[in-house]
Design goal:
7 strands, alpha/beta, Rossmann fold, globular
């Protein structure tokens, strides 16, 4: 199914953050900032996204914009770091490990993962505010009503609903799925999404 652009979309490579801006910073951006193994391709070369997004993040900090994270981001961050560390470890083995086996039977690896997560979350906490959230029945009902009209997975569905609920409707992300949510403004360097937004009149220059 092709991506249907419903959000407003801003090319962050040509945008300048403002002091009155408030952004939710998506998990992929936090990972490029604070988890080095995801900043390079398989050849060890730096990813362009690991340059563009940290540059915009630093500009937002310099402008004294307000940056937000959430408990959902912690959950997704932990999942991604553990998965990547397992793949790195498996590259020296003859076979893949079950996630539970990796978690339970390799204590040094478990210690490494927990330390990486704790260090990343400490950095995130020092540069952002934590958005309060209540995963109650009303939040679930509203999230489920949003689900059919978007192309989001479970993590991102909750973050999109949190953005709407908190009225922090600007998200810094490379994930084009957020562009399917009406009422949000997506700050991205994802060229596919930028091209689609331009074609349908959703590309915004501030």
């Amino acid at each position: 199914m092709p991506v249907v652009i419903r959000a407003s979309v801003v090319d962050l490579r040509s945008d300048s953050p403002k002091p009155d801006d408030s952004f939710i910073v998506d998990t992929n951006v936090w990972l490029w900032l604070y988890y080095p193994p995801l900043t390079q391709n398989s050849a060890g070369e730096p990813l362009q996204s690991a340059i563009d997004y940290p540059n915009y993040f630093k500009s937002a900090l310099a402008a004294k914009a307000t940056l937000y994270s959430s408990a959902l981001i912690f959950s997704e961050l932990t999942h991604n770091i553990e998965r990547k560390e397992k793949r790195i470890y498996e590259s020296n083995l003859a076979n893949e490990l079950d996630a539970k086996v990796y978690r339970h039977d390799y204590p040094r690896q478990r210690l490494k993962v927990t330390q990486l997560v704790q260090d990343a979350w400490s950095d995130i906490s020092s540069s952002s505010k934590l958005l309060d959230m209540n995963l109650d029945s009303n939040f679930m009902t509203e999230s489920l009503s949003l689900f059919p009209a978007t192309q989001l997975d479970g993590y991102d569905l909750f973050t999109a609903q949190l953005a709407k609920q908190s009225q922090v409707n600007q998200i810094i992300t490379d994930d084009g799925d957020y562009a399917t949510v009406a009422g949000l403004t997506i700050f991205t360097a994802n060229q596919k999404i930028l091209n689609l937004a331009n074609q349908c009149g959703k590309l915004v220059v501030r």
